[in-house]
Amino acid sequence: MGFVFYLVILALPFIAGAIIIWLLSTKLIKSRIIKILIVIGILIGVWVILSNIKYERPNDLCKEMTEISDNQSLVGLSKEEVEQVLGKPKYEFNDETRNLYAYYAGTLDKGSFLGNTTILFDCAYGCELRIVFDESDKVEYTSVELIP
Fold it and tell me: Which of 21, 34, 106, 120 measures 20 to 30 Å from 135, CA to CA?
């Protein structure tokens, strides 16, 4: 179903164009106003379908962790405060100047999706929320990274 659906979506502008050309040249519909309204309806329908195609589909956890990272709502918190909010990290990395916590942040599917329907599926990535602490063990910044 996915491949055929994908071909139909790709061919949709050409199908719509053929229908529009047929509508404009047919003598079955005599009123120009009706022809123009049908053409406008077809163009709006094609635009709605094509504008709703998404190329990424994150799960709820990935959306939540991305929002946390984008808002930088953890910046300035201590390690203890971060652990109170998010729990123990998946892993911790320490070097001489910085510490890093990493948390599992869900999955992200890449491909072409129309609503919940998969048109063409490329691959799935794991997401990881990374929290970088400064020298005083306060959150300096956060980011969400894709893990193949």
Answer: 106
DSSP calls for 105-147:
EEEEEEEEEETTEEEEEEEEEEEEEEEEE-TTSBEEEEEEEEE
8 A C-beta contact, residue 90 and residue 128: yes
Judgement on whether residues 72 and 136 belong to the same structural domain of the protein: yes
- Return d(Cα 18, Cα 35) in angstroms, integer: 14
**The pLDDT of residue 133 is above 80:** yes
Length of the chain, in residues = 148
Q: How confident is the model at residue 128 (pLDDT cuts 50, 70, 90)?
A: very high
Domain total of the chain: 2
72 and 103 assigned to the same domain: yes
Distances (CA, A) of 135 to 75, 78, 90, 138, 142: 14, 11, 21, 8, 15
What is the pTM (predicted TM-score) of this model?
0.63
Question: How do residues 15-38 score in pLDDT, each as one tens digit?
Answer: 888 888 888 888 888 888 888 888
